[in-house]
Amino acid sequence: MITASNVIKDSRLQDILGKALAGEAATKTDCQYLLNFREASPEAGLIRAVADAASRRRFHNEALLLGQIGVATAPCPGNCRFCVFGKGHTTFPESRLSREEIIAKALAFAGAGDLYALFLMTMHEFGFAELLDTVALVRREIPSHTQIVVNIGDFDLPQARELKAAGVRGVYHVCRLREGVDTDLKPEARQATFGVIHQSGLDFYYCCEPIGPEHSAEELVEQLFLGVEHGCFQHAAMRRVYVPGSPLAERGQITELRLAQVVAVVTLAALGCAETQNIAVHEPNLIGLTSGANVVYAETGANPRDTESDTSGHRGLDLATCRKMLYEAGFTALRRGDGTTTPLTLESARSSG
Ligand code: SF4
């Protein structure tokens, strides 16, 4: 039977969490140990509490609000079995937001003055010239304290430099769990882009995703450490969302509580990554935000986890709901893309929705 004294007597757990509170990162074997506790166990509760404390201290109890616009959809050659756009199973028609729609959505996200970064998301294949044009368009419209980040397919160094010159500050890029098995993409190609991001000086946004019930602690650790080893600016965790009819639907979905345990382990592993400046949880939820995460994304337009063509008001949360969630999680300030902060108060959380 588990009692309070039994938990305290777990000397290995005590040692790992004690090191974390002293600012020392969890190793790969530590992380495997932490992930093997049941999500509803007292040990998992302790892991989440320590990750939360370590994260708030590291990031000064500041949070980041991000907004993502899915600008285009098409049957995607990535063919990820968990994504509604995979070419082998998608029912979505090809579509693209107009320039006016993109501007309207960008201004709706950035207009309140507290958005750290605006994300522009495409499919794995995308028109590069068109993307540069969209970046330049959005850059002209939104305030200078909001950065632009792209979530696109693989690209090379000259393209990375062009993106940077157009106004892009960071890139979300992941070698997914079981990449090449549950997707048609090559892990080597995904990881080659990490080097391109690094060489070009763009911020590297990484994530442990898309987590399902079938992934072992070993698999999660190997995948999440790629972000740590490649100096990610943002680390994160995201569960695979149950999309009825998708090829992986029968494998089910982990709970937000288990996701929060992974968030906590990511947070403790990322203590060893000097470049990491924040931790995200996808999709936004309060358990993750009290387990080490200090970032959530609002979403509009296309969303790989949604069966609606515009995720706003469906799976994608709006900015006001995300801001309120960060407030409820106890964060006291929002960091903006220029490094300044704005207070996160009951009044600011309420007035926005
Ligand atoms: S997750 Fe991305 S790369 Fe994979 S099918 Fe969906 S849009 Fe394509």
What does this structure look like?
With 353 residues, the protein is α/β, with parallel strands linked by helices. It has one domain: Aldolase class I (TIM Barrel), CATH 3.20.20. It is built from 13 helices and 13 strands. The strands form three sheets. Strands 1, 4, 5, 6, 7, 11, 12 and 13 form an eight-stranded mixed beta sheet that branches. A three-stranded parallel beta sheet has the order 8-9-10. A two-stranded antiparallel sheet has the order 2-3. Helix 10 (256-269) links the parallel strand 9 (234-239) and strand 10 (278-282). Helix 2 (11-21) packs parallel to helix 4. The longest helix has 17 residues, at 42-58. The termini are far apart. The mean pLDDT is 93. Iron/sulfur cluster binds at residues 76, 78-80, 83, 85-86, 123-124, 183, 304.
Walk me through the topology.
Elements: H1 4-9, H2 11-21, H3 28-35, H4 42-58, E1 62-70, E2 72-73, E3 95-96, H5 99-110, E4 117-121, H6 128-141, E5 147-151, H7 157-166, E6 168-172, H8 187-200, E7 203-205, E8 208-211, H9 217-229, E9 234-239, H10 256-269, E10 278-282, H11 286-289, E11 295-301, H12 319-328, E12 333-335, E13 341-343, H13 346-351
Parallel strand pairs: 1-4, 1-11, 1-12, 4-5, 5-6, 6-7, 8-9, 9-10
Antiparallel strand pairs: 2-3, 12-13
The structure holds iron/sulfur cluster.
Iron/sulfur cluster binds at residues 76, 78-80, 83, 85-86, 123-124, 183, 304.
